[in-house]
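Hey,

Quick one before I head out. I ran the complex with iron/sulfur cluster overnight. Inputs first:
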Amino acid sequence: MKLDARQRAMLAEMGIWLPALPAAKTAPRPTAPPARRAPPPVQRAPKEEAPPPAPAEAPDDAARTARIALMDWDALHAEAQQCRACGLCQQRKNVAFEGGCRAAHWLIVGEAPGEQEDLQGAPFVGPAGQLLDAMLAALHLSRKSNEPDKAVYIANVLKCRPPGNRNPQPDEIARCAPFLQRQMALLAPRVILALGRFAAQSLLQTNESIGRLRGRVHDWHGTPLIVSYHPAYLLRSPHAKAHAWHDLCLALQAAKRGADGAT
Ligand code: SF4
């Protein structure tokens, strides 16, 4: 990828050096649909323990999932805003349902709202969101753009903040999963960027570490999915920014291949 002076200055300011891009490799396609799993909320370091298994879906949950799977954007947003399907509704200030453009070719999936996301009702705000915006800008992408090939859509696995940024519980993950599944179906992105272990493991239904999942192109039901570090982790671990930049470039390559295939 060729970078102009402005992009290089931006990346240098973030402490990102630019080694050669890794060759894209295709990872095995996951054998099951999107998931419900556990770990780290925003603003915290990834943890190494395996996420707890999601509970089996009860009949009432199955009916709710089927109902949500038929919703359009507005109905889905309204459903989430009033959702009381898990205990996280009790202490939330706002539901952080989405950010960016609903026509975007890029989907960015985060983990769970933190304090600022809860206050503002949007994913990836505060310092972590600012870092994400800067790295996206280096790729000429923006959550403020309305042009599909320059825009991003952002969603979290959990829409409500776990109190004190504790780990999400399996029942919370299971009950919130239909929202992300429907967001992904409505958006039909050309590329998915999963940020953080929680998002990656949930979407790929695996317990593998970020270190083993990143650096290759996964297949999420026909859509390329790239795993990278959560910006909150990058703020604490600047040495990982170069790896994150590799991941973004890998995602850009996958998006371009998707665009070529769509024309
Ligand atoms: S986290 Fe998800 S399932 Fe739980 S109350 Fe919020 S929107 Fe509903």
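The pocket of iron/sulfur cluster is lined by residues 80, 83-86, 88-89, 95, 158-160, 172, 175-176 (CB under 6 Å).

Talk tomorrow,
K.
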